[in-house]
Specification:
550 residues; Immunoglobulin-like; 2 domains; six-stranded mixed β-sheet; binds ascorbic acid; Cu_oxidase_CS; copper ion binding; oxidoreductase; metal-binding; EC 1.10.3.3
């Protein structure tokens, strides 16, 4: 029987300068990133959330928490709940059932990238210690940062002509980065006037102080809006021990690749020359962009402000387009011996999901099997449970086995027109489902992007990755059926495929989508339902919109 941990949160906008440029930032109780939730496996988390925005709705997703028995508190506006209106208080209540590193963030429109983010640390029961030891625990939450508002970006994506959000202005480590203010005078896309002050305390360099000889567990999470990242600490190795709440057979990296929606725990031993400090960097990979923010690893008792003797740029960064190295890390991640949950031997169903960039009525969109997703006005969970048969397109069966065999993934789509729908994928309760995420060329020649896919309500086994088009007769043989890691977020690489398997054993309605904020907004997602008849009666707090309006 766990403890009940109660939190009272107020979310609002405040002026802050996380990268020295002042803009509106969402804070939780005045903090950005929000407070860390610390709990033990089996505890119940109760968050009383007050929406103090003047004009915006909100909903908060507890990323990686499966919400077993509480599918209505998954926090996805349009899927599991009506949005929380300005001035309202909404109470989330759920059990954290597994130890590990998780995150929380807004799941309303593109609001996540305005700053409603934070971390969740769940410790195991004392009788089941973790299979590694460390002296101290530190959060390293990574984000990319834009100076335009969420509304401006979302409006651009939903306009004709299409206005792409572009690359972020900076990267933040624990909410702090550094924009080169002089760029505002020189670089055309950044010609915006505003307060940019390099001596603002909000953007002072993040200092991670370590005691020589001690071991640190860095809980690294990424909630970027767009960017895939590499994280590195000059002169130090990082030993990966956890991914998305599952223990990893330890392996060592110099550059940790991390996609939006993923968490990793790495062990850092302070075993280098203690008479100096070292650069900590993160950089964008898989897109040709550079905005390296730099933090400092400070060896106690050196002065935290003492500059490392090397240039900031001396920390070796991977090439942005080195897909092979990223794939190599993904392939190196295996479940830890002694903690392997073998996947079911066979699946009941295989769903191939072809990821394409398209147009729908002249609007630029992303589609899955040629269908671009949009939220209904009445959340699915309520519509399905209450049998509201005209709340969304119940008759529509998404093309689960869309014939992608003849689709040329290396070319721009021949016919780029897709359709749009709010139809869902209904899965037999307790069935085992394989999903093949198949990447393809975008609407630009010779271009394919990285997409981190996040599944709500479940963890899945990552069975395999590959380059090119998935080929059943060949690639099935390459699946890892022995010690695959379980995760909730996994990347599909440019022109590649990723295969995963999960058990549809959590009654509810669950979103499965690209964790790139603008891609989901542009339709890159689907919804799974299973076991709706096993969902107990819904709390009235999630209602009040669409057909649930009284
Ligand atoms: O969705 C996207 O749109 C742009 C580009 O494809 C538009 O031409 C881009 O880089 C995306 O990720």
């Amino acid at each position: 029987q766990g403890k009940i941990r109660r939190f009272k949160w107020e979310v609002k906008y405040e002026f802050k300068s996380p990268d020295c440029f002042e803009k509106l930032v969402i804070t939780v109780n005045g903090k950005f990133p929000g407070p860390t939730i610390k709990a033990q496996q089996g505890d119940t988390i109760v968050v009383e959330l007050k929406n103090s925005f003047m004009t915006e709705n909100v909903a908060v997703h507890w990323h990686g928490i499966r919400q077993i028995g509480t599918p209505w508190f998954d926090g996805v506006e349009g899927v599991t709940q009506c949005p929380i209106l300005p001035g309202e208080v909404f109470t989330y209540q759920f059990v954290v059932d597994r130890p590990g590193t998780y995150m929380y963030h807004s799941h309303y429109g593109m609001q996540r990238e305005s700053g409603l983010i934070g971390m969740i640390q769940v410790s195991p029961p004392v009788t089941e210690p973790e299979p590694f030891t460390y002296d101290y625990d530190r959060n390293v939450l990574l984000t990319d940062w834009y100076h335009k508002s969420m509304s401006e970006k979302a409006t651009g994506l939903a306009s004709i002509p299409f206005k792409w959000v572009g690359e972020p202005q900076s990267l933040l480590i624990q909410g702090r980065g550094r924009f080169n203010c002089s760029n505002y005078q020189t670089t055309p896309p950044n010609l915006v006037s505003g307060v940019c002050n390099v001596s603002n305390a909000d953007c002072s360099r993040l200092i991670l102080t370590v005691i020589p000889g001690k071991t640190y567990r860095l809980r690294i999470g990424s909630l970027t809006a767009l960017s895939a990242l590499s994280f590195q600490i000059e002169g130090h190795n990082l030993t990966v021990v956890e991914a998305d709440g599952h223990y990893v057979e330890p392996f060592t990296v110099k550059n940790l690749f991390i996609y939006s929606g993923e968490t990793y725990s790495v062990l850092l031993k302070a075993d280098q020359n203690p008479r100096r400090n070292y650069w900590i960097t993160t950089s964008i990979v898989s897109r040709p962009a550079t905005t390296p923010p730099v933090a400092v690893l400070n060896y106690y008792p050196n002065h935290p402000r003492r500059r490392p003797p090397t240039p900031e740029s001396s920390n070796l960064l991977p090439e942005w387009n080195d897909t092979r190295s990223r794939l190599a890390q993904s392939l190196a991640i295996k479940a830890r011996r002694g903690f392997i949950h073998a996947p079911p031997e066979n699946s009941d169903k295989v769903i191939v999901l072809l990821n394409t960039q398209n147009e729908v009525n002249g609007y630029r969109r992303w589609s899955v099997n040629n269908v671009s997703y949009h939220h209904p006005k009445t959340p699915y969970l309520i519509a399905l449970k209450q049998n509201l048969t005209n709340a969304f397109d119940w008759r529509f069966t998404p093309p689960q086995n869309y014939d992608s065999r003849n689709y040329d993934i290396f070319a721009k789509p021949l016919n780029a027109n897709a359709t749009t729908s709010d139809g869902i994928y209904r899965l037999r309760f307790n069935s085992t489902v394989d999903v093949i995420l198949q990447n393809a060329n975008t609407m630009n020649a010779n271009n394919s992007e990285t997409h981190p896919w996040h599944l709500h309500g479940h963890d899945f086994w990552v069975l395999g990755y590959g380059e090119g088009k998935f080929n059943e007769s060949e690639d099935l043989k390459r699946y890892n059926r022995v010690d695959p890691i379980m995760k909730n977020t996994v990347a599909v690489q440019p022109f590649g495929w990723t295969a995963l398997r999960f058990r549809a054993d959590n009654p509810g309605v669950w979103s499965f989508h690209c964790h790139i904020e603008s891609h989901f907004f542009m339709g890159m997602g689907i919804v799974f339902e299973s076991g709706i008849d096993k969902v107990s009666s819904l709390p009235s707090s999630i209602m009040g919109c669409g057909q649930t309006k009284r």
